[in-house]
Automatic annotation (TrEMBL):
Its cofactor is pantetheine 4'-phosphate. It comes from Xenorhabdus bovienii str. kraussei Quebec. Keywords: Phosphopantetheine, Phosphoprotein. The lineage of its organism: Bacteria, Pseudomonadati, Pseudomonadota, Gammaproteobacteria, Enterobacterales. GO terms for biological process: amino acid activation for nonribosomal peptide biosynthetic process; secondary metabolite biosynthetic process. This is Carrier domain-containing protein.
């Protein structure tokens, strides 16, 4: 099969040079067309020289053809750069994974992570769709990537704690479901004003003018002093994030415990008649429709003076509740 893009064309040329062949296809197995262990080492050096990409030798052995290698370069290599150590100097043994919201990375959690650093080593999971042109619009698929990242830092048999604001909370719930399917039973989620759409809410949100939403987002980011390159990444990811929000969770959580921090003020990001309707529907859901997706009782902490947009500014309230939750758990274990 012929190369499909510039990267595959470049890799085909490298393989041809290393193997001394006139033509290599993207489905050709390196080790079946003349390659061996010593030549794989030579291939690794040649790829680094020609593309400035340093591919681990183990990846060359496990991804034997160019199509698999480019798939790894587009997804596998990227995902391991999504871990953001928010509290690198923390000596805490407890870990709290912080999943990005829409339109940003995990850097928004830095003040909260700092407030928790004495008791939690906070690990951010950055926004996959901000760092690739191969955007993902499936909640299940992107959650699976983040789950794999989390399991590089912990294991199924240990307590797993995840925090997420807005879309980050929806992602956390899907990750929790997938963890449960793999045998995890000790999972705690902290959701910052996450709303799980009802059928009616989805129908109303789909009436929002995306061009207006994108324009408003750009204005907001510019006012914050964000650079054009990052703004373009955010705007490019937003249509895909909108589709992720509209995805249904895979199923009900059977073992997971959830604390929801609910904002008491209207979300100012929703404007016009449609925005008013969205706010009214959310106001009628005291649990943000979270309870429908879990078996255990939901714990709700209302933050009256905050809206969806600024709930993260209630660092002291949120951190105190999370720390108190940990203290109770540790006393029970003792």
């Amino acid at each position: 099969m012929a190369p499909r893009n510039a990267l595959e064309t470049q890799l085909c040329a490298v393989w041809q040079d290393v193997l001394g062949l006139e033509r290599v296809g993207i489905e050709d197995n390196f080790f079946r067309i003349g390659g061996n262990s010593l030549m794989a080492i030579k291939l690794k050096a040649a790829i680094l020289r020609e593309t400035e990409i340093d591919i681990p030798l183990s990846i060359l052995f496990s991804h034997k053809c160019i199509s698999l290698l480019t798939e790894w370069l587009e997804t596998g290599s990227l995902k391991y750069n999504l871990i953001n150590l928010l509290t690198p100097e923390s000596i805490a043994t407890n870990k709290l994974f912080m999943i990005h919201a829409a339109g940003c990375g995990s850097e928004v959690y830095e003040p909260l992570a700092k407030a928790l650093s004495d008791v939690y080593n906070c690990i951010g999971i950055d926004n996959y769709n901000l760092f690739t042109d191969n955007h993902i619009e499936s909640l299940q698929k992107i959650a699976r990537i983040y789950l794999e990242l989390i399991l590089t830092e912990t294991s199924i048999d240990k307590p797993i704690k995840i925090l997420g604001w807005s879309l980050g909370g929806q992602l956390a719930m899907e990750i929790a479901f997938q963890l449960e399917q793999n045998g995890a039973k000790d999972i705690q989620l902290f959701l910052l004003d996450t709303v799980i759409n009802t059928v009616q809410l989805t129908e109303i949100k789909n009436q929002l003018d995306m061009s207006y939403v994108l324009s408003e987002a750009a204005i907001k980011l510019q006012a914050m002093g964000v650079g054009d390159a990052y703004i373009n990444k955010v705007l490019g990811a937003m249509p895909f994030e909108h589709k992720i929000v509209n995805c249904n969770l895979s199923g009900k959580l059977m073992h997971t415990n959830i604390t929801l921090f609910k904002a008491g003020q209207m979300n100012s990001d929703y404007k016009g008649d449609i925005g008013l309707t969205v706010n009214q529907l959310i106001a009628k859901m005291p649990d943000n429709n979270i309870s429908a997706w879990m078996v255990n009782p939901l714990v709700i902490k209302l933050i009256n003076d905050r809206s969806h947009a600024d709930i993260l500014e209630s660092t002291s309230i949120i951190s105190a509740e999370i720390i108190d939750k940990l203290s109770i758990e540790e006393n029970i274990r003792i």
